Amino acid sequence: MNTPALAVSDLRIGIRRDGAPTIDAVEGVSFTVAAGQVLAIVGESGSGKSLTALALPGLHQPPVTIRSGSIRLEGVELLGLAPAALRRLRGSRIAIVLQDPMTALNPVQRVQTHLIETIRAHRPMGYEEARERSRLALARAGVPEPARRLQSWPHELSGGLRQRVVIAMALVNDPAVIVADEATTALDVTVQGEILREVRRLARDSGTAFVWITHDLGVVERIADTVCVMYAGQVVEQGPAGAVLAQPAHPYTRALLDCVPARQRAGTRLNQIAGAPPSAGQWPSGCRFAARCPMVRDDCTRTPSTLSVLEGTDMPRSVRCLHPLTP
Ligand SMILES: Nc1ncnc2c1ncn2[C@@H]1O[C@H](COP(=O)(O)OP(=O)(O)OP(=O)(O)O)[C@@H](O)[C@H]1O
Ligand SMILES: [Mg+2]
Questions:
Q1: Average pLDDT rounded to a whole number, residues 55-70
Q2: Lowest CB count within 10 Å: 20, 68, 76, 228, which one?
Q3: What is the per-residue DSSP string for 10-67?
Q4: What is the pLDDT at residue 2?
């Protein structure tokens, strides 16, 4: 079997507070992404998506710590790797795109400087060759007139173009994995749709594996091969995106789907999930979704739910629910 581009196993992320015990904000996150595949991680605000995103390339900062688990990039374990070795992989084999492109762009540098420096940080290359490689990266990220755009300053670009430049920076060294955390959330729907199409094409044509983080199931539907649904720091359901969205097994996934307006009959009220998720560290002893679950039963509040393989499905799916929904 081929080594997956990224294999995460039982990742546990803690937050260390002064004088208090470390809180496990994320736990039991396991997934693999093969070359050319897009895995989406979806969940409400505070579910631990960004903690997971930053941990993958080792960009988390104190008080956040990785407590246990494994992150293998092309078979290489990243946890415990020396900082210099991790820095070499970051930007060359794994890259990250965040929501605000200006965090990655220097306002006093032209587009080409960003790209050329990203290339040369990882390998020696002559200026003209690096510039041509940069132009190709812009074109692959869907930037129109890439030769002209090399000369642009960040402030001359629209939000959508800036994000495409950041995506070009992420892919300019042909990494195995690109992690994107709400990368299109701030953009208008048309631009978002174009970028999602571009990403699908990149995955297919370049074999890049993507971890695409979003709070929007509509985005999952358009981009993902597989999906992890997160709730209160845990994966509650995962499997092939089409199957999970068509027939969710976890009541939380079902509730999220009911919030997507396009799926509802015209005129019905947008169904928001009532209540709020528990805060990190204040986890209830049973199922973390029990307090908001429309299907809750007595044992749900007492027995912690574990992620188990869902029987009776063609493709591998798992769900963290004592009483999963059946078709
Ligand atoms: N640096 C930090 N210090 C303390 N708590 C943190 C830190 N980063 C995240 N948290 C907490 O961990 C939990 C998960 O945060 P995270 O940012 O991963 O959520 P998210 O799923 O990305 O949400 P959103 O959709 O709003 O971006 C939250 O309760 C948050 O308050
Ligand atoms: Mg986030």
A1: 96
A2: 20
A3: EEEEEE--TTSPPEEEEEEEEEEE-TT-EEEEE--TTSSHHHHHHHTTT---TTEEEE
A4: 83
Q: Which residue ranges form the domains of the chain, and what is each CATH number?
A: 6-93+175-319 (3.40.50.300)
Q: What is the 3-state secondary structure of 115-161?
A: HHHHHHCCCCCCHHHHHHHHHHHHHHCCCCCHHHHCCCCHHHCCHHH
Neighbours of ion ligand 2 (CB under 5 A): 49-50
pLDDT digits (tens, 9 = 90+) for 215-233: 999 999 999 999 999 999 9
- 92-113 pLDDT, tens digit each: 999 999 999 999 999 999 999 9
What pLDDT, on a 0 to 100 scale, did the predictor assign at position 281?
A: 86
Closest ligand (CA of 181) = 2
| Neighbouring-strand partners of residue 319 | 237, 308
CA 252 – ligand 2 centroid, Å: 19
Out of 18, 26, 49, mutate this one to test ligand 1's pocket (max ligand atoms within 8 Å of CB): namely: 49
The finding on whether 250 has its CB within 6 A of some atom of ligand 1 is: no
More confident residue, 26 or 272: 26
**Interval between CA 44 and ligand 2 midpoint (Å):** 9
